[in-house]
Design brief:
Radius of gyration: 31 Å
Distance between the termini: 29 Å
Largest sheet: 5 strands, antiparallel
Shape: globular
Strand order of the largest sheet: 4-5-6-1-8
Order of helices and strands: HHHEEEEEEEHEEEHHHHHHHEE
Helix content: 25-40%
Number of helices: 11
Number of strands: 12
Strand content: 15-25%
C-alpha cells in the first residue's frame, strides 16, 4: 500500500465520497432494513431486477444464466449427450412417482445431475385434496430472455438480452385418477419426445381420511422444460423465474388438506430418525400442505384455518423467526433464590464463602429439575411416537440437569475450579459493562457522551448491567467438570465424547455463554498447567469464535 506521502492527489473538482458527499439516510427500523435486504437478495439471485417484468440486461452481458443463479430450468441436452438424455427422460417420466403423501422421503432415482448435468429441467409440487373439489386452477409463469440489437449512447450497435414475461393458466380435473399432459409451448402431439414446455399432472387415489374428508386425491403438478439445447439460441431455451400457483377453481376456497399433521396418529408413516422425531415434536403445531420438488412451497392459510387456500412455489423461502427472550429469575418462580449477578458470584467465589455460593446456585439445578417434572407430565398427554420422543427428550434433559448439579458441587470442592469461576465472572462483568458503554456512546450519534460519563451511567445500573441469563449460567455450569478434568469421560477421543451446542436466534445471548466458558478455560488451564494429558508451564488454550 502506498504511503500517504506517495498517494495520488485528489482530482480537482471531484468530491471525496466520504468527507464531501452528503450522506442521507431514509428513516426506518431494523425490520425495514431486513425487508429491504431480503428484496435485494431476491432481485440479485432470482430476478428480475427491481421487479422489472421487461428488464433489459446491460449491453454485452453474458446472458441471464450468468446474471441469475436460482429459479431456472434448463433445456434437454444436445442429442450427442446420450447418458444425460436417458437420465432426463427418466426424471421427466417419473415426476409423479413420489408416493401418495404418506412417504417421509422421496424415492432415489437417476437424475440429470447424477449423470453429469448441472441443471434441472423440471420443478413441481404435490398436495392433497378431496375429490369433490372437481377442478383446480394452475398458473405457470416464467421469464423468457431473447437477444436483440440495440444502440449505445455513442451510436454503437450491441447485442442485449431482454425479458419477456410468460404466463399460462390451466384448469386440471382431480375428481378421478389419471394423467394430464398439457403442452404450454410447442407442438401439442402425443409424442413425449417432441421439444416443448409442458405441464404434467398426475392424480392418484389416497386411502384414509384427513380432517374428516374421505375420497382423497394426491396430485402432482410439474413444469417441465423439454426444449432442445441450442447453441444458437443459448439462454433463450432456458426458463427463468419459474413459478407454479395452484388454487381452487374459484380461487377463494380452502381446499388443500394438510399432508402432514404431527399430532395425528395416522398409520403407515415411515419411521424417522431420532433427530427428525425430535424436530417433529418441537414443531408439532405446524401443518405441512405440500411437498416441493427442486423448489420450496409456500401455503397460504387463513387465520385459525387448517386447509390452505393457495399453494405457490418459491425458490427463496422466507420464515420469520420470533426473537427468543430468556426469562429472568423474577419471571420464573422455580428459580427463586438464584443469584445471577456476575459481581456477586465473583464475590462469593472464594474458599471461605463457598457454602454461600452453593446456596445461591443450587436453585438453578433444583428449578430445572422441577420444570422437567412438569414437562414429563405434559408428555404423557401426547400420543404415539410424540409421547415416546418427548419422554426421551426429558430423560436427556435430566442428564444435563445432573451435569449442572455436578458443576455446582465441583465449585464447592475444587479450589482451582473456584478461582477460575471467580476469574470468569469478573472478566465477563467487565466485558458486559464495556459493551453497554460502547452502545450508549453509539446512541449519542454525532455528540456522544464521554467514555467516563457513559461508563458511570452503566455502572449506576448496578447488577442489571452485568448479570447472566439463567440459561447462560446453566450452560457454564454444565461444562465445568469436563473442562476441569482433562481425563473426563465427556472428553474421550471416540464416539462417546460429548459436544454441547447452545443455539438461539441472533440476540438471544449465546455469545456471552461461550465467552464465559472461554474465560473459565483460560483460568483453569493456567492454574493446572495441563492441556489434555500434557503439562505445560505457559500456554494451552484454543478458542475458535465462529
Amino acid at each position: 500500500m502506498p504511503s500517504p506521502q506517495n498517494a495520488a492527489a485528489p482530482t480537482p473538482g471531484v468530491p471525496h465520497p466520504v468527507d464531501e458527499v452528503p450522506q442521507t439516510f431514509r428513516p426506518g427500523s431494523s425490520y425495514d432494513v431486513r425487508e429491504e435486504l431480503g428484496k435485494l437478495i431476491s432481485w440479485d439471485l432470482l430476478g428480475p431486477w427491481a421487479d422489472d417484468e421487461t428488464e433489459t440486461l446491460p449491453p454485452n452481458s453474458a446472458g441471464p444464466r450468468d446474471r441469475y443463479l436460482v429459479g431456472l430450468l434448463g433445456p434437454r441436452p444436445a442429442p450427442t449427450d446420450q447418458p444425460v438424455k436417458v437420465a432426463v427422460g427418466q426424471a421427466e417420466t417419473e415426476v409423479g412417482g413420489e408416493g401418495d403423501g404418506q412417504d417421509a422421503e422421496l424415492t432415489d432415482r437417476l437424475t440429470p445431475q447424477a449423470a453429469g448435468r448441472l441443471w434441472a429441467s423440471s420443478m413441481g409440487l404435490s398436495f392433497l385434496v378431496p375429490a369433490d373439489v372437481g377442478m383446480l386452477s394452475v398458473v405457470a409463469s416464467w421469464g423468457r430472455y431473447r437477444q436483440s440489437d440495440g444502440r449505445t449512447d455513442d451510436g454503437r450497435t450491441v447485442r442485449t438480452w431482454s425479458r419477456e414475461p410468460v404466463r399460462h393458466e390451466v384448469d386440471i380435473p382431480v375428481d378421478a385418477p389419471g394423467t394430464l399432459r398439457k403442452v404450454l409451448e410447442g407442438v401439442d402431439e402425443s409424442d413425449p419426445n417432441l421439444p416443448c414446455i409442458r405441464l404434467d399432472v398426475h392424480v392418484r387415489e389416497r386411502p384414509g381420511t384427513v380432517d374428516g374428508a374421505g375420497n382423497l386425491r394426491f396430485v402432482d403438478v410439474s413444469l417441465i422444460n423439454a426444449l432442445e439445447e441450442s447453441r444458437e439460441q443459448r439462454d433463450g431455451q432456458w426458463l427463468f423465474q419459474t413459478k407454479l400457483e395452484v388454487t381452487s377453481f374459484d380461487g377463494q376456497s380452502s381446499v388443500f388438506l394438510p399432508i402432514d399433521d404431527p399430532l395425528s396418529d395416522e398409520p403407515g408413516r415411515i419411521q424417522e430418525s431420532p433427530e427428525e422425531q425430535h424436530l417433529r415434536l418441537l414443531y408439532r403445531q405446524e401443518l405441512k400442505h405440500a411437498h416441493g420438488r427442486n423448489v420450496a412451497v409456500h401455503a397460504q392459510v387463513l387465520p385459525k384455518g387448517r386447509r390452505a387456500v393457495k399453494l405457490e412455489t418459491t425458490w427463496l423461502p422466507v420464515k420469520d423467526v420470533p426473537a427468543t427472550v430468556a426469562p429472568s429469575t423474577a419471571q420464573q418462580p422455580l428459580l427463586a433464590g438464584l443469584e445471577v449477578s456476575m459481581d456477586k458470584l465473583a464475590e462469593l467465589a472464594v474458599w471461605e464463602r463457598r457454602d454461600e455460593l452453593l446456596k445461591v446456585l443450587q436453585p438453578l439445578a433444583d428449578g430445572y429439575d422441577g420444570w422437567l417434572q412438569q414437562q414429563a407430565a405434559k408428555a404423557q398427554s401426547l400420543s404415539g411416537e410424540l409421547r415416546t420422543t418427548a419422554l426421551r427428550a426429558v430423560e436427556e434433559a435430566r442428564d444435563a440437569c445432573a451435569r449442572i448439579a455436578l458443576g455446582i458441587d465441583l465449585l464447592h470442592a475444587d479450589r482451582d475450579a473456584l478461582r477460575a469461576f471467580r476469574f470468569a465472572n469478573r472478566a465477563m462483568a467487565m466485558q458486559r459493562r464495556a459493551t453497554a458503554t460502547a452502545a450508549l456512546r453509539a446512541e449519542g450519534g454525532e455528540n456522544p457522551p464521554t467514555y467516563a460519563a457513559a461508563y458511570a451511567e452503566v455502572r449506576g445500573r448496578g447488577a442489571a448491567a452485568a448479570s447472566w441469563y439463567p440459561f447462560q449460567l446453566a450452560f457454564v455450569l454444565l461444562n465445568l467438570c469436563s473442562l476441569t478434568d482433562p481425563a473426563h469421560k465427556e472428553r474421550r477421543a471416540d464416539s462417546t465424547a460429548t459436544v454441547d451446542l447452545l443455539f438461539f436466534p441472533t440476540g438471544g445471548g449465546k455469545t456471552e455463554a461461550y465467552l464465559g466458558l472461554a474465560a473459565y478455560t483460560f483460568a483453569i488451564r493456567r492454574l493446572q498447567k495441563v492441556v489434555g494429558r500434557e503439562r505445560t508451564p505457559a500456554r494451552g488454550v484454543t478458542v475458535w469464535p465462529h
